[in-house]
Amino acid sequence: MTWTGDAEEVTLSGNIGCTISSIEFTYTPAAAPHVGETIEQAYQSYVITGAHTAKVPAQSFGGSFAIPEYVDYDEVRYYITEIDDYAFYNEDDLFDITGGENIARIGAHAFEGCTHMRSFSLDGGVLDEIGVDAFKNCKLLAYYESNTTTPPVLESDIFAGDELLNHILIDYFGVGAYKEAAVWSAYESIIDYRGIDASVGEKFFDLVQMYTGLYEVTTPATYGTPGEAKVVPYTSYINDIYPITRTGTLVIPEDANYMGSEYAITGIGENAYKDSTRFNAVMIPQQVTSIEAGAFLNCTGVENVYFLWENPNTITWYDRDKGLEFATATSGKTKIYVPKGKLAAYQSWAPSWASCMYDVELFDVDVTQAEDPDHSGRFYRTFFDSENDYLLPPSVWAHVGYVQDNEFILRSIAYDGQILPKNTAVVLESETPIYHLIKSEGSAPAYTGQNDLRGTDVNLAVSSLPAAQQDKVYVLGKEAWINSVRQVGMGLYRYTGTTLGAHKAYMIVGGTSGAPTRARFLFRHEDETTGVENVQSDKVQCTKILRDGQLIIIKDGKEYNAQGQIVK
């Protein structure tokens, strides 16, 4: 009797009619012609290990790495079953790991030294091996998740040095086994089932809001309901990773993400920014309702403070009556700006600061109907003011734009806490549909780079433009279609109206030589350029190897150490 075929289909053949006491099968798998070859997909690399398997090899990657269930290559499907030894060893730019339905093995030192990694979430339930020191010194790792019910046998404390680890979340039916297993049992107090909510007092770090603080949960998020958190002082080990060195404006964020939920930042904790001297301005958004003692004590470099609350009497600020915060305020160095028309209310609320308070005009923005469906949570509008600089509030970016090959390219020139200079037509991008632009004192340097946008301070009749331009005006639209195919969520449309709105930007395309061949332009952000000096940054393709126990990164034929220094 013979057995022929490959791993997916076999055929049994032989004589029938005799008595068989035993059968021995010898199975030789079909050849796997691509074993060892590398597959590149979406800036991620995979190495083929068998006829239908592949692994995540050593590589440099920035941001969040989503491990797919499989990758297709040369008409063959390869399931991702392994994260190799040293796969992301000392990768500073790796933030999160998700997916991995078929991962059965995590190699030794796979994530060791990933000091900025916040979370690890494995969807599959087949993980049965985790190598030595796999998650060692992941100092910002807040939670580890896995569906596996049987705890993998550990040869070492894989979470050694992970000082922010709050949760080890696993399948409900495996909780007991994990709490009793060797090495895992040392974390019994934080082992729980997947889906559990965060608890009051848990600390976490959101890398999107880097340099602004560590956060502490004050109201846990529940299913479908955001939670609340406050800023708390950095611990010494986080200060080693992300020292608060930001100059310019310190913008208290509106929200942060933790365990897949949004947390509104409603408080600034005791001594949160005490003795911080690098930033010269502070912006406190409207959703902050509590500021504890010493939050800004001895922030002697602060010259401008912006309060955005409509009603200051709803704010609890423990030090305001004594005037302890912003120690230089009463000396006249610090100016505190409040919304126009609210000055008397603020001076009554904090009489110690009354002499250094000033009101400032706000430009109200409401783009509720301008969400880009292809870029979830992003809202766009154009803006122009020839007379005033503006301070951008939290989660707002200003982009100039230019046309290239039927694409309208956005180039960021300012973001939250930075100044949008006067006489600069821009596209504003925000994470919230309603916000304020804050008129800024002084004069910011003019923007002198390429910008095909122009703007108007007043309602501008299209008929007032030169005749050759009147049919070549383009404005920002909600959708873009080319040849009846939807391309992106936003684009530039040929304007068919009669009046351009005040404080809006537009573009003239075609000059006097005629209209472009297409009636609308695609819309995208300019690609970030990354120099080889920082070889581990996002979108930089590198090869990692270990030589004599040292990590070596190969990029464009040159070799770098883990710090990005050329060694060969």
How would you explain this protein's 3D organization?
This protein has 568 residues and is mostly beta strands. It is 3% helix and 36% strand. The chain is built from three helices and 47 strands. The strands form ten sheets. It has a nine-stranded mixed sheet with strand order 29-34-31-32-44-41-38-43-36, with no helix packed on it. It is globular, with a radius of gyration of 29 Å. The protein starts with a strand and ends in an 8-residue tail after the last strand.
Quick take:
The chain is mainly β and 568 residues long.
Whole-angstrom Rg: 29 Å
Tell me what portion of residues adopts beta-strand conformation.
Answer: 35-45%
Poorly predicted regions are 511-520, 525-541, 546-550
Major β-sheet profile = 9 strands, mixed
By DSSP, the count of extended strands is 47
Oligomeric state of the chains in view: single chain
Helix tally equals: 3
Report helical residue fraction: under 10%
Mean pLDDT: 81
How are the strands of the largest sheet arranged?
29-34-31-32-44-41-38-43-36
Quick one: overall form?
A: globular
How far is the first residue's CA from the last residue's CA? 59 Å
Structural class, judged by helices and strands?
mainly beta
Descriptors for this entry?
mainly beta; nine-stranded mixed β-sheet; 3 helices; globular
